[in-house]
Design a protein that fits this description.
445 residues; two-stranded antiparallel sheet; TolC-like; transport
Length: 445
Amino acid sequence: MKKLIVCFLLGINFLSAQESDLLTLKDAINYALENKAEAEKARLEIKRGDAQIAEVRSAALPQLSISGNTNFNPLLQENVLPGEIFGMPGENVRVAFGQKWTSNVNAQFSQVLFNQSVFTGLKAAKSTREFYIINAQLTEEEIIEKVATSYYQVYETQQMLENLNKNLEITRETVTIIEGLYDNGLAKKIDYDRSRVALNNLSANRQQLINALQLSENALKFMIGMPGDVPVVLPEESFSPLFLPETVQEGMQERTEITLLNKQVELLNYQKAATNAEYYPTASLTANYGYLGQGPEVPLWNGEDKGVFWSDFSAIGINIQIPVFNGFATRARVKQNQIDIEQAQLDIKDTKLAMELAYDNAMSQLENSWITIENQQENAQLAEEVLTDTQNNYENGLATLTDLLDAERALADARNNLTNAQLDYRLAEIEVLKSQGKLRTLNNN
């Protein structure tokens, strides 16, 4: 019987140093959490939350800008003034204001004194970062679930191949026995041919299972983000559960999905508060200081000897804006925000019901799989005894070849049914842990 040879590497340095290390479920989960794109994207979203907080905070911090320009005025605007100003009563005098060249450098400062939407935005930004953190936790739990499922499916295929190898060995022995009987004239040629057909069919099935095992290993490598050319090695451990664990349904508030939805409702409340902030007045402090040069020449490098004169100026003020009436637009937006909140609360209620149903189904599947495992273990043992008796009866002429082949198939079916029940149990176990918010225990064992 050929045994599956496995090998797993956890990084380039680790790769070259320990080529014989095995891939445990914990190792597979840790590798996926470090290398899978979904986990890395979730961590990047947390960094995005930090950047969003900094962006919103900037609105409450002082703002300072410096600007400058130089203009050439080929045509100066003329104004008509009364002649009395110039000692010319009864006449109008056209006077051009300004100079052909002007240069201006200005520094402007502003500081928010009161803006309710900015303060609300700061709180919302912090809550958004928390949302990304919870979402990253949920993403990791989803990865753990997928990796564990794929990991156990590799074990199932491996166990199926082992079952077939055992059955193949039994069939080879049967073929050898019938061949000896046929050579001694104690068996018919048709019996010998039928036994060889059964052997060839099992060999073909074995090759299909080898291919299926390779595919399941490739799926596991993809699930954990491992390169396809790295061989995978699983430890030889019992796939069968040793006992039915005591399971208690945890409060739904412990589930990451519910925590995430509650955080979403919190964000929607902040959005409503930001809309309500449109009712509040805003106040800000502004100040500017500038330097102005003007004359018939470019002011930047000319002075009074060229007719260019420079002067500074400044202004300080407070801007206050009080909303009075906008056609009830703010009220309409507040109502829309409230509808979003109520819809999110309905999502929470529906999600809790779905989780309760998933827990009940998982528990039923877990208990039924446990019963099936116990039955199939007994059934496989009985099938082995039946096969042994049938082989003895066939050698003594008390059973037909059909009886013998049927007994072999019955044993193979019993073993495969046991393997399927073991996989069903493991998958149900994952669902129970998920419903209890304890998927991370798979990563701790």
